[in-house]
Amino acid sequence: MIVIAGKNNISVFGLERALRQFSPNEIAVVCNRNDTGVDGWQRSLRAAAQKHGVREISLETAYEVASVAFISLEFDRIVVPERFSISRVFNIHFSKLPEYKGMFTSVWPLLESRAEAGVTLHFIDRGIDTGDIVAQQVFSIPSWWTCRDLYFAFNQHAGQLLEQWFARLVDGDVRAQPQSAVESSYFSKDAIDYGALKIDPLATAWALRNQIRAFAFREYQFLRWDGKPVVSATILPGRSQFKAGTLINATEDYVELCTIDYDIRLNFDRLPEMLEACERGDLEAVVALQANIAGYNDANPQGWTPLIVASYAGAYEVVDWLLQQGADPERTNNKGTTPLMYAKDAFLAGRCRRAFPLLLRKGARLEAADYSGRALADYVSDEQFAQLRGAF
Fold first, then answer.
1. How many structural domains does the chain have?
2. Which of the listed residues 249, 268, 287 is the one where a domain comes to its end?
3. Mind listing the pLDDT tens digit for each residue in 1-19?
């Protein structure tokens, strides 16, 4: 039996990858303790297991029944590898090991202004993320990403790594290299007190900007100024002339403060207004509001991003501008619906014939499936799909 343990999109991807190679009665899952069994901004492993008829078991049972492999994907408990009768006990950790072992791996690269991050497939040993490394995938961090963007990227790249290695993990030669002690770091669950987070202007403007990015995660928290959520920070060209923390300007959209070196603007959340501007196709308003959202892939509770809204509205100029800024052409809503799936409605209704082929040119895939397993072709007639294919 193969056991998948963990949470969120990456664990569901692992389960669905296992189902391509094993029958449901050959797979079991161990869900994180906070898995509600309901999909939200991330998918539920418990819900996916129930949908596919896969048994949910405890970690104690997993020690006894795992006979092929045990794969930890964002799992919330310490695993003791010696308790398994097998050696194929793996984890995918959301960092470029040996750096950032432990907790809050979406925070540290942004706090430290790193240019890149990575995901690491490794054997589980008695330590915390210290096992020998099987493979690693490294990617760049754009300057506007928040910790939410980084977490989504971790899931995406971990899925790619798992796809590349899955067959070997369950039935193949898996070689690994010990982790280096150089640049190794570790952070426990006590490293950050989220209840005590606050904006501290007694810092450099650069450090404060990085702090805003590192804790901007809409589903969890934003740092706040005078009770208002701050989604981004802009370093201003002027050197601070007054004591750090001095308020020098305030509007409904932002406040400007002195720090110990440069003045900084803290931008307040206006995502609803941004989505309305995208729906109207008002590019001028979209550009003006860009600092008032937490990155170009920010999303409302249903997972609707500015790109999804603009694609559905057929707002070509807005779609084009968002893609130029780095918006992800495949970032889905909470049901797995892609911007391309929404752009097809605008195309077929005649609202816009240019956004659909533009998304394809920028990397959107016709074959991408939503969380029900249906691709774009499943939502249109053969004649309509031929029209869409001909648009590219």
1. 3
2. 268
3. 999 999 999 999 999 999 9
Structure tokens of 67? Answer: 């006979």
**E strand residue ranges, 97-203:** 101-102, 116-123, 133-140, 186-187
Round to whole Å and give the CA distance between 321 and 175.
45
Which structural domain range is residue 249 located in? Answer: 196-268
Task: Measure the CA–CA gap between 364 and 357, rounded to whole angstroms.
Answer: 9
Give the model confidence (pLDDT) of 169-214 as tens digits: 999 999 999 999 999 999 999 999 999 999 988 999 999 999 999 9
For every residue of 77-104, DSSP letters joined together read: S---GGGSS-S-EEEEESSSTTSSEES-
| Prior bond of 98 cis (ω within 30°) | yes
Bridge partners of residue 266, in order along the sequence: 233, 255
Coil vs helix vs strand at 229? strand
23 and 119 share one domain = yes
* 280 and 365 belong to one structural domain: yes
